[in-house]
Amino acid sequence: MRGRTNAGLVAGGALVGLVVLTAVASFFWTPHDPTLVDAAQKLREPGGGYPLGADKFGRDTFSQLMVGARTTLYVGVVAVGIAAVLGVPLGMIAGMTPRGWLSELIMRVNDLVFAFPALLLAVMFGAVYGAGTLTAMIAIGVATVPAFARVARAATLQVMVTDYVLAARAAGRRRPAIAVRHVLPNIGSMLIVQASVSFAIAILAEAALSFLGFGTRPPTPSWGRMLQESQELLFSTPRLALWPGLAIALAVLGFNLLGDGLRDYLDPKLRRIR
């Protein structure tokens, strides 16, 4: 069990590290300008300064993948940040007042938001505010709030019945102090795991939104839009869809493996089994 856990954690960390390294490198160097349209290089095969070839507009595929990694991470970080900032406090409040009307209200609203997938929210937001990266980030973030709220509430309920919390309540500590000093540090590991899993979901959602035209707008490179632009050449030039599809798959796999590995490593019950 320990070998499998370490292998998953290491593999996930390596894949995530590769995506992050690629995104950081794109700030300082790319083989070509990823937005430069060069008709002379249209559908150029790999080689001669174009490691992965060029697309139907003559843009370097490798450069687009590098900058697309930056876009993907940017959307994921902001979306998961929005979800955590909104969902964790709500979940903690609901967990610390499990029999109150406020807890019931929070969880019922949480269920209502959970019924709307990120794609539908993005379409709604795009119709009102216009499609774009900001719209995608907000839609994905709002759609992920219920997941963080549920995890935070479940973990808070477990912490609230521990001896040290009961002692703190008997000593007259107020709920905000208990939340900051006792609850949040003890549910942090679960939230880290949830953030990793939510990041994988955010990557898929951003790619899907860009594919449908509700995500990142041209000329900013995006893995999802690279797939959308390659669909008409899927049979004649399949490599145009292969590379962005592979990048999305590896990024999602990396964050999922990282989340599973962190869960197994940080969960004390699984640690005792090992």
TrEMBL record:
The membrane spanning regions, by residue number, are: 7-29, 73-97, 109-128, 134-152, 191-214, 240-262
Q: Which GO terms describe its biological process?
A: transmembrane transport
Per UniProt, subcellular location reads as: Cell membrane
Keywords, in A-Z order:
Cell membrane, Membrane, Transmembrane, Transmembrane helix, Transport
Entry-linked SUPFAM superfamilies: MetI-like
Tell me a GO cellular component.
plasma membrane
Residue ranges of every copy of the ABC transmembrane type-1 domain listed in the record: 69-259
Q: How does it sit in the membrane?
A: Multi-pass membrane protein
Regarding protein family, the annotation reads: Belongs to the binding-protein-dependent transport system permease family.
In its UniProt entry, what is this protein called?
ABC transporter permease
Which Pfam families did the record assign?
A: BPD_transp_1 (PF00528)
* InterPro entries in alphabetical order: BP-dependent_transpt_permease, MetI-like, MetI-like_sf
